[in-house]
Amino acid sequence: MDETMAGDNLRARLDKLQDILGKKITLDLSGRSDRVKPGNSETEVPSWEDEHFDLKMRQYETSNDYGAETATYMANPIKSPGNYKDIDSATLKIGQSVDEEISFCPWHAVVHYPARFIGKANKPRAQPFFDRVLEGKTWDFFYLHNPAEPEQKPCLLVPTAQFVGFLKGVNQILATELVIPGGPNKRLFDLHFGVGGTPRPRYLLRSRDQKKLHIDEWPAANEEDLRLYQDAADVHRELWLAEWEKTKQHSFPDNRGGSYRAEKNREARLQMLSQTQLFLGLQGARDPPGKPVTFICVDIEAIEVAPNPVSEIGIAVLNSERLKGIAAGPSGANWWDFIEAHHGCPNNFDFGTSVFPRRAELVDTLNTTFAKYANGTHDVVLVGHDIKSDIKYLSTIGFPIDQLPGLIGNVDTQAIYRAWKDGTKSPSLGSVLVDLDIRYKNLHNAGNDAVYTLRAMVAIAVVGLHSAQDAQLLEPS
């Protein structure tokens, strides 16, 4: 297309937009440029507002595959709110550092925001915006190396103000209230570097209406940053490292298959926590199950010498029907007295009288115990701390607990604890109890462990629900 035809086409599009908007539109394309590539330190980029014309036209030209809500949003750029200091991107050059007052968030935290910080009702509605987070929008990307490991790949960052503006745009379309989360997670989206002259993020590139982010080559660590870090006072280096450590939160490995599996596992843990809250009838849980739920916790102690024979079995039971009308209290402590316990060891079993069937009678004893609760009147949920190992041990003695009548699912307190903490490690029961401030004694007694596991389950469900409400991340019931 020659310049005359291109000009006629642009004027026709401009006239169309003027007719739609009902007012005169003046187009100034001065200062526009193509995508910036690392290495050209003299290249300037256009300001955030320079995108208005093309993005406005996208309102009428975006493919219907996006859906009406997504297409409308992508056609309307959102200026960043004033809560976070924005950047005059027109003045930036590749490799240039920025004012330490600028707040940043890691790009991986932006991309995975729906999985971590949006409730299950709104996540499917918001996910399409994040799937096309680059399209129809402009982002300024920055990089930051760890001076202690300069050979490692840098962290990719964007200004917090731009992400807040992105959320605001989604909220305007969906009538949601997506925000930077409260509590400890807020720090992930409000990172500041440069105190005491320590290294600050450096400008990398501007992404304008891209389908994918293209970074051809990462810049090497800046020698001046390495010197600034070494010359800084100890307290300032410690502050810098504290901020750097936050950039690793919620991150995934580079391997896409590993990333996918990690995200799916995390979603499964979050779903398990949500289901636990639902079964307990906690505030905010929707569509309670048709039948009351009985939680049955089985804890197995095995001799730590091959072939690891089962030495002790403890059982604890909590009937959700008995909790109706009773406030859970701090960490659910008001519900603990409703937990029934069976078996254990003499002298160390703190919640009842121990029962000792002979080896040949063990399966019959278990069947008799479970028949009291798995009788068709209640749905049954198995509970355990690393529950797979307990199920495996029970199968070795001829009791396939996963075939229990009325069984509708499992709750693993390791998993829901990790969902609450968004952690990667699988803690011991004792560590979980300490973190929840639940006093305990005589662990590794199967009967006691079963009771404490149910207490931990209740506490995580209660505290986890409150944390989400404080952060305004659960939709109203």
Automatic annotation (TrEMBL):
Pfam families: DEDDh_C. Residues 343-460 form the Gfd2/YDR514C-like C-terminal domain. GO terms for molecular function: nucleic acid binding. GO terms for cellular component: nucleus. It comes from the Eukaryota. InterPro entries: Gfd2/YDR514C-like (IPR040151), Gfd2/YDR514C-like_C (IPR048519), RNaseH-like_sf (IPR012337), RNaseH_sf (IPR036397). This is Gfd2/YDR514C-like C-terminal domain-containing protein.
